[in-house]
Amino acid sequence: MILGFPKSWSTLSYLTAICFALPLGAICIQALVPDEAVFGHLMQTVLPTYIFNTLALMLFVSLGALLIAVPAAWCVARCDFPGRNWFQWALLLPLAMPAYVVAYVYTDLLDYAGPIQTWLRQVNGWLSPTDYYFPDVRTLGGASVMLALVLFPYIYLLARTAFMEQSPSLLHASRVMGASPGRSFWRLNLPMARPALAVGAALVAMETAADFATVSYFAVPTLTTAVYDTWLGYGSLAAAAKLSAIILLVVFCLIGAERFARRKQELFQKQTPITSHERYGLSGYKAWLATGYCVVLLLLAFGLPVWILLGYAWDYFDVSWNQAFWEYSLNSLTIALVVSLMTVVFALLLMFVRRCSPREVDILPSRLASTGYALPGTVLAIGVLVPLSYLDFALNDLYAYFNQVEPGLIFSGTLFVLIFAFTIRFAAIAIGSIENSYKQISPSLDMASVTMGMKPSAILSRIHLPLLRSGIFAAILLVFIECMKELPAALLLRPVGFENLATYVYQFVSDEQLEQGALGAIVIVLVGLVPLIYLNRSLEQGN
Amino acid sequence: MRFMKRLAVLGFACVTSMANAADSITVYSYRQAFLIDPILADFTKETGIKVNLVFAKQGIAERIAREGRLSRADLVLTSDFSRLMELADRDLVASVDSDTLQQNIPANLRSPNGDWFALTKRVRNIYSSKERLGPLDIDYEDLADPKFKGKICTRSGKHPYNISLVASMIAHHGEAETKTWLEGVKANLARKPQGNDRAQVKAVKEGLCDIAIGNSYYLGKMLQDPKQVPWAEAVNINFPNQKNRGAHINVSGMALAKYAPERENAIKLMEYLSGQQAQQTYAELNMEYPVKLDVKPSKLVASWGDYKADELPIHKLAEYHGAAVKLLDQVKFDL
């Protein structure tokens, strides 16, 4: 806190926060606009199905991800088994896979014409689909499994940390009193990790609600695909905004639940991580079981899809290795770089004001600016386009009034809108990362600097920036990978004719020709791997 | 904020430079660039007018509507008929009165008031398994015949290609009869409608079904992809209803944007696209049939044989579009 901290800094942070909260406001207002009965028609016919599908999917995916992630996290955190050190970080890899790519690969493998069913038919002499039962991949259940496979690392990461940080003395007490390791897990470890699991499950559910490509490929209509179809198909922005408002309601309920869980988490955290001799040394079949589980999980969620993608890319290398591929890669990288730098700049501004301002309310801007992450890409797109189109027309009217040449759609029709939306969506990540870094800087440093007559701008550039370096780097990396993967917002907001890797790959997925776009998918995955490895390393150092 | 400002300035510079480019037109296209680029290159060579082509798979109508009077779009190219209708229905097109277009494009393949024009035709074919059925003399009506129970594969009924087939059935038989027909077809399906037209032919190859509904050009496209050649070789292509009204055709087309800034030049391009040279290339690149009567299709397409096309004016299909969607919902075709 710096007494006499200039108000201009605070004003700037409020302005930024208002810009960032613009989409949320726009959707609320747009949802109130009458819509020529499109929404009424939807409500009578398909809306109940959409809502049911969305909620069921969120539930199944969270449960599935919990079931997958908790055993893995517990084994890695509390047991010693062959390959443990390696699995510790390798289990994060699936996070780099776009869910729709995994979905495509498994559909190819498991559908009627795929190798598995063909092989079954040959072995058993079956001739037609009526001869046997095989589960259909392109269903709600199939989509749940696919999403759980790529989203479980969120829970795994949080659960692993939670299990590691549980005080060993509690476990010792439980064991002394005669509880078996299994009983200790159910009665002690699991209940203590519950807040972390709730946070993870809420994150997974939010990501599920935001997913567009997987459910659209599987023809499982959800609210998110409905927003897209209503907007582009029926051409009704108002009805799409109403659907968006429903999604927001669901997401904010989730965030409420997550906040509640995190509030309690403080009570349990004891910073005494366990050491290697306090882990259960597994041997014999138990060690095989633990290793086997991690191997199978990793193969299913990462190894197999990547292997198949590599196969596609190899077969179709000549088709995909072209000028367009380079252009789209460059587009993706540029956008990701610009957005990650912008989010960091804004996050620095917001967190600097929050730290230095003596006014209590100045915590608001950083909170407000973090709401963007709650908006799924399709919803955000509407929220961004409405105010920017309005701004564009106002500006053009102004030019026309003064008899000047109208500049056209300089905000809503250019890359500005895409960068603006991405910045809003991912600002929360940068804010969180820099917030954590700030916690490590002692306030006495600020005070010393003020005593020596430094101005706020000098404190920021000469004291804070060098100390925040690692936090800033992490923020850039995390935002970067999210920008590479983000699909629905890019699909809806890009200027006509602009493609990046995500939209390029999705185009092939929706045409059922991923083979030709596999190279692009591999680049997305590879770029995503770098931050994951870095993130894990910094986490390990933290431990 | 400074960053934002700088970015806005950058965007501004981009737009103004685009607006000032001399003699260039902007085409919003639902068709992929590689299908049109060679033709546009010739057009530029001949007229000196540069063409800025932008492709999007979906949402062009929505974008033009949002851009309103500030839209830079001059011409819209679509890959099927329903998109043309959408543009016309939402009042996003300007009508064109051109003798060249009227001479080159038959009356049943353009809007009566000049709102839109077809550029290529494709047939909604019925593919049959070479091994199990051989070539068929078949009508769309036969798809409801119980003898094909469990033998038919198709993509979603709600796909524009199928909607317009259903609309043509309504035009010829009325709603009640079409509903019965749809119920019959649904009862004959080997699986829930899914995938695209190629996936149906692939399913025939795999033995999942014996009959697939699909557009004509997919056969040509599959023959170009080494992995898909075996699928294409597993089927015969059949032109339906040859003994009566002829096969159902769908079209790709073009429409002039309502607020086209370069109206004159855009019309020049429209006329060029309907001409001899462009028609030849345009049809060949996507294995389709040209709309201009004296232009021949590619050798491969011609090798599938002559066919008789349904003479029903295309704009008639638009009238029954809504009814077709409702019928498909009523019989729960996709569920």
From TrEMBL, chain A:
UniProt main location, coarse: membrane
Keyword tags: Cell membrane, Membrane, Transmembrane, Transmembrane helix, Transport
Recorded GO CC terms: plasma membrane
Keyword presence, Protease: no
Location within or outside the cell: Cell membrane
Annotated membrane topology: Multi-pass membrane protein
Pfam families per UniProt: BPD_transp_1
Stated name of the protein: ABC transporter permease subunit
Family: Belongs to the binding-protein-dependent transport system permease family.
Domain ABC transmembrane type-1: start-end pairs: 51-255, 329-535
InterPro entries: MetI-like, MetI-like_sf
Segments crossing the lipid bilayer: 12-32, 52-74, 86-106, 140-159, 196-219, 231-255, 287-313, 333-353, 373-390, 410-431, 463-481, 517-535
BP-aspect Gene Ontology terms: transmembrane transport
CDD domains found in the cross-reference section: TM_PBP2
Keyword Transport attached: yes
SUPFAM superfamilies assigned to the protein according to its UniProt record, in alphabetical order: MetI-like
From TrEMBL, chain B:
Protein's organism: Shewanella insulae
Gene Ontology MF terms: metal ion binding
Name listed for the protein in its UniProt record: Extracellular solute-binding protein
Coiled coil segments of this chain: none
Family: Belongs to the bacterial solute-binding protein 1 family.
Signal peptide (from-to): 1-21
Record GO cellular component, one term: outer membrane-bounded periplasmic space
Any Pfam family matching the protein: SBP_bac_6
Entry keyword annotation includes Iron: yes
Record key words, sorted: Iron, Metal-binding, Signal
TM regions (residue ranges): none
InterPro entries named in the record: Ferric-bd
Binding site for Fe cation: 217-218
Top-level taxon of origin: Bacteria
